[in-house]
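Query structure, 124 tokens:
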């Protein structure tokens, strides 16, 4: 291994088919249920559209699917039913994932998110 070659341990995140299956099955159901109560609904939807975009690199997909799977899972660090704080861990995980892949979330992903959530397009 040369100094320029990262070690295999640094190749994470590893795409997990389980994350993709969970997101495919439950993402829209959960997002539609809670969208009016969470301020990061558009970001979550944009992350989804980026993750399913064939042009998105696999490492980016893995990061986004992992974050979205955390959002979808019914059991997480802070239970979602706790008023006022239930989605703070989900927001933090999604914000971290979006920060990690910031350049990959394109305007086309955000536009699809706004359309799916019935959010008006911003004025030009």
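Result returned for the query:
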């Amino acid at each position: 291994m040369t100094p320029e070659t990262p070690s295999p341990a640094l190749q994470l995140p590893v795409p997990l088919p389980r994350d993709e299956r969970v997101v495919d099955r439950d993402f829209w159901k959960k997002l539609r249920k809670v969208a009016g109560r969470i301020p990061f609904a558009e970001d979550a939807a944009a992350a989804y559209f980026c993750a399913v975009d064939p042009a998105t690199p696999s490492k980016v997909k893995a990061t986004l699917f992992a974050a979205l799977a955390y959002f979808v899972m019914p059991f997480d660090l802070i239970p979602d039913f706790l008023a006022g704080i239930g989605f703070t861990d989900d927001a933090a995980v999604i914000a971290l994932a979006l920060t990690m892949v910031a350049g990959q979330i394109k305007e086309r992903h955000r536009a699809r998110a706004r359309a799916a959530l019935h959010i008006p397009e911003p004025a030009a």
